[in-house]
């Protein structure tokens, strides 16, 4: 079974390496400077819950916001004592996409902040969403779609998923636009999501080959600057629409990523290992106590004595051995060598750590 898993991983990695050699659009490698989203947040109230809302005594802010909403609607609740269980105070978060216009709709996420047990079936009351500058850019309202379920009885409870958080697709309407004059830009910078000098140089070369020399210049490993005027396009938007679809083959660093909790190992095809020998084996120490009780003969003087007896042994599991990896060993040879040892995924992680510590693994080693 383990050999089948390793061969499947090997097939996946080799196909992934071929995919990495495929040219990728510039729009999938960079972010355009200034073309970005903005985070929004608001504080609101969810109503219509089936007895799964906040306990008012444990969450007094729920009573406060409920009183404020009712007073804005013309209901005087001064001095009244609320004890409903069908309301919950929530935080509402969203991202305002770039170039969003007034009247467009965006998705929102609703999360309980009190002791509510579930937001399933609740309705978010009109909630203003603010940006970092304190201005209101959108207003949210709608029925929540929760991603979990919770049930309980007198003797126990069960919860699946997270019923205290949910989403409202197209649940907020944009009320204010963010000023950004793309048409007035004379230069624009491309910010690489993964900074790399080779990739930035290839982006510069590909753009200059498409538009002509002098249009783009690499400033550093993470930035390529575009001279909009040199593109001779009618507008910066037309220039970016053409630039973002230019194909470039990115360069990736050799990297090995392991997850110790799940035993997952992900390696790129460009990982290389110098000449090194690997020996792997597990020793199992077994100690068993079998005390014997010795009693005196009937009607004879004496005491009961417990005689300790211990059985100890050491066993070595099968599959141990020595594998030698030659200079410049590739990923496929590493997998084949470790597979020959019959090691488990967790043992393989320990082996890779040891190879890295020995200075023979020429790749970035990331442990999660």
Overall pLDDT score: 78
Please give the alpha-carbon distance between the first and last residues: 25 Å
Low-confidence stretches: 1-20
Portion of residues in beta strands equals 35-45%
Largest sheet: 6 strands, antiparallel, barrel
Shape category: flat
Alpha-carbon Rg, integer:
32 Å
Tally of strands:
26
| Alpha-beta classification | alpha+beta
Strand order of the largest sheet: 3-4-5-11-7-6
Approximate helicity band:
10-25%
Number of helices: 6
Q: What's this, in brief?
A:
This protein has about 375 residues and is α+β, with helices and mostly antiparallel strands. It has helices spanning about 1-20, 60-70, 195-210, 235-245, 330-340, 345-355; strands at about 25, 30, 40-45, 85-95, 105-110, 125-130, 135-145, 145, 150, 155-160, 165-175, 185-190, 215-220, 225, 245-250, 255-260, 265, 270-275, 275-280, 285-290, 290-295, 305, 310-315, 320-325, 360, 365.
